[in-house]
Amino acid sequence: xxxxxxxxxxxxxxxxxxxxxxxxxxxxxxxxxxxxxxxxxxxxxxxxxxxxxxxxxxxxxxxxxxxxxxxxxxxxxxxxxxxxxxxx
Length: 88
What we know:
- The chain has one domain: Orthogonal Bundle (Helix Hairpins), CATH 1.10.287.
- The protein is 84% helix and 0% strand.
- Helix 1 packs antiparallel against helix 2.
């Protein structure tokens, strides 16, 4: 970053909305994998390995990502509102 500038309430609110909007995209990934993975007649070592990784690492990482999007997005929105109040 070459320099810094004061962030505006609109920029913060926009970022908050952008971050929170990603939650639905991540939920779509989770659902798109979970639903067929549990119902398709796929067998073999590749399925076993993927299912173990999906259940053990990948899905939990996506859930944590969603939690981070929620916390950061909400923080940006609250700070934007606080700045608007302070600025009158």
